[in-house]
Amino acid sequence: MVLSFDNHTITVKTSSILPPSYMDKLRALLGISRPSSPIPTERQESNVVGSTYSTHVTTSTQDLSTFRIHDSGPSNIPMANPGPKCFRISNVPSTWSKDDLLNSLKEIDPSLERISSNEYQLSLFPACHGSSKTAILNFETCTKYFQKLKTDDFNYQRTSDGSFLVIDSHFHDLTPLSSPEGKIVADVVAVTGLAGHAFNSWRSPDTNSMWLKDFLPKDFKNIRVMAYGYDSSLTGPKRGDARMTDYRRSLLEQLGNARVSANSRPIIFLGHSLGGIVILQTLVESKRNPHYKSILDSTYGIFLFGTPHQGLRTNELESMVDVDSGGQRKNLMMQLKQGSEYLETQREDLISIWAGFEGKKLLSFYETMKTLPTRMLNSEDFEGDGEEVQIVERFSALTFLQSEHRVPVNTTHTGIVKFATSTDSTYQTVVTHITECIGVCSQIQQEISQKQANSDPDELQKRFARLPRPNTSFRCEERDHRIE
Questions:
Q1: The whole model's pTM is what?
Q2: How far, in Å, CA of 415 to CA of 369, rounded?
């Protein structure tokens, strides 16, 4: 839990909505009386996570919850600049170092010169495809320049050498999160969930650590980690009119571009909530379309976190959907609700996928803690309401396949993919099974190479040449002897 202060307002941020009893205890601790009207609760924008400062509040369903409690006196603690605090910077020239990029950013935003290096973090990785690089810039306190950038689109900034940097905060499509060392043995692809964010939905609100970037590449130096983002927001502006079919097709295209020179490299998928459905839909499409068959053939591991194979509770989510946002958001809710015909069809389509998945890894993580649902107060505000519910029931989060490894996680639906430290027990389970998965990948790859070598005409010719030759001269002498 994090507190921030601004004039007569104390803003409380938590990783999940707090029950009213918790809020009463907090008020008592702070010496604040309970208001006569219901306390409005708001969801913080999904690309703003884990800061000790108050930020612009919109609506979302995947990240922090923000409660505003009015106190009786002023505060002298300043409020940080509002706006998103995590940015992706693409199209960085391949020859640039992190210092080169930072110097260029300081030319674009001179205020970076005046803030401490402790107030931001810059990471630079090889791009998922092409020869450029991609950076991730995290702020403790967002500068005014970055605060004013468009949050739902790309921002193009020319540098002094004529290059164009592409800056965004939505993280749609693939984002690289590692710099592999040596030969890459596997691609790890993480797909975020409903109304999620490709970076922040995997980030701990307690430590600000994003385990896909901060932990996994240290434990596996020869894997490439990528996160896939897409617009599945339930409120606010929506770019385009994407459907489930578009999510899976886009992921296939992105993977095809990222693997153009290594289309047989093993893939390990990580999917949270709706992200798991998108992954499974992608594999179904891969089986149907010969052009993408290598994606299915190369998949050696699927790690699913709270994936609703038989639907999730959508009652409260449906009330959050903007009335004027078009029908696609409500259609998405219909596809994900319990008893959905869409998910029933998917389970049937997956029968042939699972039949060929023998010897590979399938892990299903399911939450054991309930979440307090939310209801809409008005066009901007939400509040915790009613009894806590299980967003994804245990029976829905499991496939019940014999080869499935089932892992209970003592947290909520959102917290199931937010690991505060590398010693987190669930993270250690992930590491253990990725290690085993990579071992299976290596073994299968060796077997495939051996089979290919056995069927290669050139290799057969070489092997034949190495066979011991018959002693033809001895046979001739013996034949001559018999003739005499």
A1: 0.76
A2: 10
